[in-house]
Specification:
By secondary structure, this protein is mainly α. It has 1 helix and no strands. InterPro entries: ATP_synth_B-like_membr_sf (IPR028987), ATPase_A1A0-cplx_hsu (IPR014275).
């Protein structure tokens, strides 16, 4: 092969190699960009799922707190009613005692 043809062939092969390298670099950049986009999408989905789970757990905790609050209020009301009944009984007993003591004191003076 004559020298000018060899040089032309080498230049053609080099140009083809440069084109292959440029195409590979472009493809690499596209792959990296797509990977970043997918990573951002996955991160966004994970954050949304975490937010949703947090809201769900907060709602469940609020329900549990409200249920326990109602239980405490009911227990408190029952205790209050028992105490009122007991106080009423003692009040009746105290009035009876006071009347008896007063009557005895009046009879004792006469």
């Amino acid at each position: 092969m004559p020298r000018p043809e060899v040089l032309e062939r080498v230049k053609a092969v080099e140009a083809e190699a440069d084109e292959i390298v440029a195409d590979a670099e472009a493809e690499r950049e596209e792959i990296i960009a797509e990977a970043r986009r997918q990573a951002d999408e996955i991160r966004s989905e994970a954050e949304a799922e975490a937010d949703e789970l947090e809201e769900k757990r907060l709602a469940e905790a609020r329900e549990e707190i409200e249920a326990r609050r109602e239980e405490i209020l009911e227990e408190g009301q029952a205790t209050r009613e028992e105490l009122v009944d007991e106080a009423q009984e003692r009040s009746d007993e105290a009035v009876e005692y006071a009347l008896t003591a007063f009557t005895e004191a009046v009879h004792a003076q006469t």
